[in-house]
């Protein structure tokens, strides 16, 4: 795969203007309360904010305004997505890597980790363990290596869909891998990929250059920045963006994510990213950069950035990963998060090993939340949310522009909540511990009561079908 020549041109100008972002952030300092409240009013109507407005939110220091912002983030999340939280698991397929990203445990020169790529049989074993715990949605993760080309990734997607144990099956496979070219993405589209996810890591050009050696393929900022444009061109219209927080100033990165969103909307007829991820850097074995990064984001700032993203891009799914501790996850969840991973293991072959009682030491980074899926589900129920394993949007064609038109009109919960109830009921019947079953049934009953009588009847009829043994019911 060759990098497109235009991205090799030193004069190529992309849509991230570092100076302009800093000008906007500086101009937004010490905002008036009235200005901020006007922006809150706009956000309340669930319109995507402009960079100047987001910059002002990023500069809020006043405690009352911060509390108002957190409350508004909660409200927007509930109005757009309802109180449902989608669960998924990451599955690391291979950790060979040609690149030397300074912050990553998989970096090529890191001799302290064992390099491994799952065979198709081993991949099947991992998927079986995940299915037996109740997962229905996976994100497959790969280093960047010639062995992990589009044909290989497509083969792994097909293998995952084909692996079924008992009542288990994986119904949506998302991918986090190095950017591909258009023919490569087409192969993944044909294999039935859900979302393709690429994190820009940092939107700040100079920092990007410092952290990604020039000779590496990942050293080309623009090839990565436009990586999801190529996916769209190939027909993959659910795109996941993200920044690795802790590489550069967090306020700048939020602005970068917003500009990326605006770029998609302008280029693809209003279709923004399907999801935004905001991982924070974690320490990794023999990766000195991760020990005390200069731009490390505090828990307080982390909360702010999640709420500001929720207000700025109200219709986009937001993913909070198990990199974060259980405590942080509980605090941040209500501020706008719509998807979390749980029961995650990020060693290559980590699920099967863990199932056999082994805990791998040499991973890409350290996870903060090691709860099982069952525990995480129970805790989410206690927070008043309804866990979901729904994959209906993608399978009903509610992706890309169709998804956006629904999400932007806040109608997504008309589909999402009933589908959350159905898929959660399956989980409770097939996989949950007795304790989780009790907590879960309570949440289902409470959630059903929020619908009118006609809808309640439809939902209850379908729940009866599930209790009678039918599976994979959605609307
Ligand atoms: N190799 C592909 C790439 O770089 O795009 C995809 C897989 S990479 C393993 C997935 C993501 O892990 C990266 O995009 C990066 O944001 C994240 N990551 C790398 N090092 C990390 C660390 N020390 N802590 C937290 N996340 C990290
Ligand atoms: Fe390789 Fe991705 Fe890690 Fe960079 S972030 S070293 S490309 S696995």
Automatic annotation (TrEMBL):
Keywords: 4Fe-4S, Iron, Iron-sulfur, Metal-binding, S-adenosyl-L-methionine
Classification via InterPro entries: Aldolase_TIM, BATS_dom, FeFe-hyd_mat_HydG, rSAM, rSAM_sf, ThiH/NoCL/HydG-like
Coiled coil residues, start to end: none
Required cofactor(s): [4Fe-4S] cluster
GO terms of molecular function: 4 iron, 4 sulfur cluster binding; catalytic activity; metal ion binding
Keyword RNA-binding among UniProt keywords: no
Protein name in the entry: Thiazole biosynthesis protein ThiH
GO biological process: sulfur compound biosynthetic process; water-soluble vitamin biosynthetic process
Biotin and thiamin synthesis-associated domain ranges (all copies): 277-387
